[in-house]
Design a protein that fits this description.
The complex is a heterodimer of chains A (259) and B (265).
Chain A: H1 7-30, H2 42-54, H3 62-93, H4 95-108, H5 117-152, H6 156-164, H7 169-206, H8 212-221, H9 225-253
Helix pairs in contact in A: 2-9, 3-4, 3-5, 3-7, 3-8, 5-7, 7-8, 7-9, 8-9
Chain B: E1 4-15, E2 18-30, E3 35-39, H1 46-54, E4 61-66, E5 69-70, E6 78-81, H2 93-101, H3 108-121, H4 137-150, E7 155-159, H5 167-183, E8 187-191, H6 195-201, E9 204-208, E10 215-220, H7 222-228, H8 236-241, H9 243-264
Parallel strand pairs in B: 3-8, 3-9, 6-7, 7-8
Antiparallel strand pairs in B: 1-2, 1-4, 4-5, 9-10
The chains are: A mainly alpha (259), B alpha/beta (265).
Chain lengths: 259, 265
């Protein structure tokens, strides 16, 4: 916590921000800045959110939409981590691999994940394969870049100690580079998870027949703005939960380190 | 037989497009099972000498040979004890010692026996599953020494291994290293800037000039130690009180002081 702000001050400021936000929201409606169908009231959104948990919308209840999204997210993000982290570490260790992959990768990573939608749909369909590719496109670059940077920034003392001990390439990567790069890798996973989760909703807006993105786009065509907003909130909350889980993973991986 | 042989070694560093000669005409042979300490003013290239024997750096001209083979890369036949210990913080004491052993193709049983032996020898019993950050500096360096010795290397290279320790811990470690070195004689190249440490530990002390580092003189400590029977004293302060010790120490001090005076111009 910041030195200059005490804990009670922090909570007071948080409360001011939150209350101010909702006050502004209500005021916008009370003063007729926006018609009801354009801007639902906060309590209406909350009621809708609870309602969606029990009553199906677009064929599924909220939990099932979320599950469908999470499944795709898990596939795409898992694949990105599974390929990106080892590849990034190996690129940090083998100069040749670095030279082969980096130029290509630097060109590809600036393409927005959603730009892959047409090809994702053509190649892998609109069920789980297509969205998985789009999430992968979003989550892969930070996973790879951070593993690579983590590997390149390993304290040279550890590398010298490993080579002096006669440790080969594979074990140097798995037992020296990887643990040394964990903080950087976790930062990459957090960014990757965020980008992947955002890309997913974008992908589902276009291709899928279930999931949170699909729920939002269907609600939009029905001008059910309260449902749209409830969906947005659910996406935000689950995003935060994913981030918290990754930070837990970090704490677990670093439990033996010096603070 | 394990010898370290520096033949006409020079080392040039390039920085900002300019060449800096840091080592010039080093000729030195460390004999089998001999303990040689190199002392010199900071920046004289003594650490570079050690790193060239380790295969972490290479001479610009001349050659460095270990067992008559030119050093081309680091390897477990030349174990290094670094000043900053360089233990792996994510590995326990046991895992740190085991890490190098696992590369040697030894069976599990054999490795466990070796680890237990060196943990015992370095007074680390009970700390097998501790992580480096849970240990004091002295304990950490014991682990690093155990890790190096367990490899059963031809030569041991130590780069100011006690430089990061406090004075009391340092004394204890010096006494233990003497015991270890007399019990398990190895070919050792020991870098230090502490004169007393060099005289106490080494068979021969190499004094280097300030940059560019050259060998100024080599003192035979072993013959004095044996004729004056230093090893009958188990405590370092008793040895340091002996006239023969003081004499050698003062001689090296004077020699080094000339070098410091030389750099003041």
């Amino acid at each position: 916590m910041n030195d200059q702000i005490s804990r009670s001050q922090f909570w007071r400021l948080t409360a001011i921000g939150t209350i101010g936000f909702f006050a502004f929201w209500y005021l916008a409606r009370v003063l007729h800045f926006a018609p009801p169908q354009f801007l639902p009231m906060p309590h209406e959104v909350l009621a809708k959110l609870i309602d969606l948990l029990y009553n199906p919308f677009a064929g599924y209840v909220l939990g099932d939409h979320m599950l469908a999204s999470l499944q795709r997210f898990g596939m795409g993000f898992g694949l990105a981590a599974l390929v990106g982290i080892p590849l990034g570490l190996a690129m940090g260790w083998f100069r040749l691999l670095d030279d082969i992959v980096t130029p290509l990768f630097d060109g590809l990573r600036f393409i927005a994940p959603v730009a892959w939608v047409p090809f994702a749909a053509l190649w892998f369909g609109t069920g789980i394969g297509g969205p998985t590719l789009i999430i992968f496109a979003g989550a892969f670059p930070p996973c790879l870049i951070n593993a690579y940077r983590g590997a390149r920034n390993v304290d040279v003392r550890f590398l010298e100690a490993a080579s002096m001990l006669g440790v080969g390439n594979f074990r140097t990567i798995t037992e020296v580079l990887f643990p040394a790069a964990v903080p950087s890798i976790i930062a990459g996973l957090r960014i990757g998870a965020g980008l992947g989760w955002m890309s997913l909703v974008g992908a589902e807006l276009i291709v899928a027949s279930s999931g949170m993105g699909n729920l939002i786009v269907r609600a939009q065509s029905a001008i059910a703005t309260d449902t749209v907003m409830a969906g947005m909130i659910a996406i935000g909350v689950v995003g935060v939960v994913i981030d918290v889980l990754i930070r837990r993973l970090e704490r677990w991986l670093l439990k033996h380190r010096n603070a | 037989m394990a010898t370290i042989q520096f033949s006409d070694v020079t080392r040039v560093f390039r920085r900002d497009g300019k060449d800096f000669l840091i080592l010039d005409g080093i000729n030195l042979t460390v004999q089998d099972q001999e303990f040689v300490a190199i002392v010199g003013p900071s920046g004289c290239g003594k650490t570079t000498c050690m790193r060239m024997a380790a295969g972490l750096e290479f001479p610009s001209t001349g050659s460095v040979k270990v067992n008559n083979v030119v050093v081309t890369e680091p390897g477990p036949d030349r174990a290094v004890v670094f000043q900053q210990f360089a233990l792996f913080p994510w590995k326990s004491v046991h895992e740190n010692i085991d890490f190098g052993l696992r590369s040697k193709g030894l069976g599990k049983h054999e490795r466990e026996k070796l680890i237990a032996h060196y943990i015992d020898l370095m007074n680390l019993k009970g700390y097998e599953s501790a992580y480096p950050h849970q240990l004091s500096g002295g304990m950490q360096q014991r682990v690093a020494i155990a890790r190096a010795y367990a490899l059963n290397p031809h030569v041991l290279l130590m780069d100011e291994p006690f430089g990061a320790l406090d004075a009391q811990t340092r004394v204890v470690m010096q006494e233990e290293l003497v015991k270890l070195a007399r019990k398990n004689p190895r070919t050792v190249l020991f870098i230090t800037h502490a004169v007393e440490e060099a005289v106490y530990l080494a068979d021969r002390v190499v004094i280097m000039t300030s940059r560019p580092g050259k060998i100024k003189e080599i003192l035979d400590v072993k013959s004095v130690r044996e004729s004056e029977d230093w090893d009958q004293h188990s405590k370092i302060e008793d040895v340091m009180d002996l006239e023969s010790f003081v004499h050698l120490r003062t001689r090296i001090w004077k020699s080094l002081r000339e070098e410091h005076a030389g750099t003041d111009h």
